[in-house]
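Render this sequence as a predicted structure.
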Amino acid sequence: MNVDEVVSGLILELRRGTLILLVLSQLREPIYGYSLVKTLSENQIPMDANTLYPLLRRLEGQGLLSSHWDTAQSKPRKYYQITQPGLEVLEKTKAYWKAFSNHVDQLLEGTI
């Protein structure tokens, strides 16, 4: 067994759902993809554009995001924003995350 491979796999699993929550949380105002990658990276949450754009398309397909193109600048940009159903999903998921992570912290620290 290669411990580093096991750890890498576990971290990947932990990141998947967490990234969805973080992306939704950053889209209360319209933002374009590169700016979102930059914001997450500046906050120690690295996310590759090849991961972000398929995620944004999937969330938009689920009705959790909307998008529009801004062609007023020399380089057109697609802006994404959370929808009302997306806000509801975000708030419910965020509440679950807070309670869940609190219990996880307590178990990991041995305080339960």
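Summary. The longest strand covers residues 65-70. The chain has a mean pLDDT of 95.
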